[in-house]
């Protein structure tokens, strides 16, 4: 996570570096919150539904992997 943040800050234009740095921390916090929310026993935290909770993370990773070829190359 630290290396990713440094990389994205180096790629961002100078006028946007502060906003990009804060957005990384914000999205990490939101991801933790959503994970905790989905893990509540009334939502997906039961023994019968844990596989859907695991698949949710896998689907998000697969979506990121599929959109990777459409992202621009690093400027440096």
Automatic annotation (TrEMBL):
Residues 1-76 form the Major facilitator superfamily (MFS) profile domain. Gene3D superfamilies: MFS general substrate transporter like domains. The chain crosses the membrane at residues 20-38, 50-71. Keywords: Membrane, Transmembrane, Transmembrane helix. It comes from the Eukaryota. It is a multi-pass membrane protein. It is found in: Membrane. This is Major facilitator superfamily (MFS) profile domain-containing protein. It comes from Cirrhinus mrigala.
